Amino acid sequence: MTFLNFILLGGIGAATIPIIIHLLNRNRFKIVKWGAMHLIDTAFVVHQRRLQIENWLLLLIRCLIPALLALSLARPVLTGASQLFGAAKSSLVLLLDNSYSMDFSGGGTANFTEARADATNILASIGRGSDASVLLMAGGVTPLLPAPSSDLDQLQKLLKGVDAGYGAANVPESLETAAALLTKMNNPYRELIVVSDFQRVSWSENDSPARARIAKLLHAQKPEPRLTFIHAGAEGTDNVAVESLDYSRLVFGVGQTMQLHATIRNYGERTYPELRVEFRVDGTNRTVSQINLGVREQQKVLFTHVFESPGSHVLEVRVDADALQADNYLQASVPVWDRVPVLILNGDPSPEVLRSETDFLEISLQPYAKTKADLTDLITTRVILPAQFNAESLAQTRVVVLANVSHLTDQQVHWLNEYVRDGGGLLLFAGDRVRPDWYNQSLAAPGLLPLPINALAGSLDPAVPGAKIVGEHYTHAALEMFNDPRNGSLADAEIKQWFKLKETRPGREAAVNVLAQLTSGDPFLVEKKHGEGRVIQCATACDADWGNLPLRSAYLPLMQRVVTYLASTVFPPRNVEVGKPLVAFLPALDAGRKAYLTDPAGQKHELTVTAKGSRSMVEFTRTQRPGLYTLNPPDGTTIHFVVSTSRLESDLEQLKETEQQALAKHMGAALAKSWQDWKKLDRQRRFGTELWRPLLWTVLALLLGELLLQQWITRPPASPKRAAQRAAETKTRSG
After folding, report:
1. Would you tell me how many other CB atoms lie within 10 Å of the CB of residue 459?
2. What's the half-sphere exposure (Cβ side, CA atoms, 13 Å) at 651?
3. pLDDT tens-digit map of 51-99
4. What's the burial of 292, exposed, middle or buried (CB within 10 Å: 0-12/13-18/19+)?
5. Residue 398 CB: number of other CB atoms within 10 A?
6. How many whole angstroms separate alpha carbon 415 and alpha carbon 615?
7. Which domains does the chain have, with CATH numbers?
């Protein structure tokens, strides 16, 4: 036991005052001889022992009162002195929940404002010389400083600039990072504090095994760190969110009409009879719709738009429903092109009309140009011979088509492989000049061939029926339009000859997706992702030599959709999740130059463009904050990126108090409601439990007891007659 006010222990000497008074008063009496004294001697002997006990008890109480009062003023603590002095410095890791649910304001003050204030006060209250680290739990576990620091003032200043609005809090990753960080800190007294709103989706039962594992790691550390949960903020009951934006992920061209379906969800217990839903393009309001959104209901709202100019555009759907702004809107970046350049390698050219390998393909990809119509094609084609193909051919090309190409040189395969890996699209058509052995070796080696080419199937004999393309419900973006009979039917075509595409090594091509099949059971169209790009392989030719598909109405939309699908992946994604890098491909000549990116907070970042194969690229990795990022490449254009997070955070339900207590018990943690509560816990942990309060209550009880006992002792004596009767009774019993 130690004392915080040790000098006040001298007050215990006041316990001798009642004894001194007793001794002084003991000699202040006179002996008076009285003849009738013998009549009460017997009664006096009977009550003498009781009177002594009462007086000794009264004296003891009077001695204890000043002694205990002095003891309480000295503030005794149940701990050892070595622990008391060793706790002056500590090592602290503070996890701060900065997810966007923390922006909810229940009583006028946002939950995050309270949490940040708690964190700041905790840093201000730990001893000088302590080291601390603050980790933000959302948008990727991010420390305020690269390493633990003893500059607590700097940490507090940095905290003032932190805000919420990030993605969902990753609780297991945050706890694991904190546990690893504690092992590298210096002071023997260590503590981990979590300040959060304890939103149910972030502290779900699914993560319970992970949390239990981390708690075990913490308890195994020597010295064992203290774990404290601090609940910050109020629970929200009303919240509406724009949950998703659904639109075609294929290329949009100038003048094309796009359809966008926005999903609006009510997470609360309130009905919105006339909820305004705004549709914006590049920050300008285009359409406003009103919906009736019931309790816990979700609805889809349809918007349409025609892009009038090429370039990068930002779509936004916004509702004005509640104070939590982070999920009241959702954005998407959409590149709009005036043209999609396609490079076609013709493996079987011919001067005759419709006899060249790629004639039908060219017509289908740019029908307006071939018919000299006034309208403009989105796709523009450039046809070359395989021998003319080089690295420069790939500049500004969105899709490369190999049409009945027998083979390429090793250098050409290298260029093609780099192009696809960087996000380009490749479309392979079979034909009579294709050399299966070269495809299965040279093209398959780098991963550019989805499935090996096996035996030739079918017959060109008119008397032998060919295979049909299986008509089914298509789910792939390139074929889903054929679920509408008005767009033609693939099943109308007859395929007379084709290559069997079959994997000979089980499990090798698990990533291959079969888009369409023939009635023979053989794949017709297959797809494989390669790096950042994609390859689609067709089992038959693109001309009419092996079937009548080019003569059917479905051929033109099929080729258009397949090519635009491949072109849609030529760019790295413009819409990414929190924490994913932002990448843009730029012309090769931009390598070494500067690009500038503006983040959602308005901060501008200078980036250096680096060479990447036949192109250059720029990359930005600090995408912890959701929102709109704007890139300005060296050529002065604008590229938009949208970083978004899961809308699970929009459900503001928190763990109940009993659930928080169970969680704390499960992890061996203490639970506090504010930093003041933590301070009390911290005092008990560091200094032990102070006893002044129970001692003071004891003093008050003794004062009351002393008063009652004194009244009992000084009560009026019994009458002489009654005393004589008691003496006679006593004498009779003793006789």
Report:
1. 12
2. 14
3. 777 777 877 887 888 888 887 887 776 654 444 444 458 899 999 999 9
4. exposed
5. 25
6. 11
7. 2-27+35-78+691-734 (no CATH), 87-234+654-687 (3.40.50.410), 240-336 (2.60.40.10), 340-568 (3.40.50.880), 575-644 (2.60.40.10)
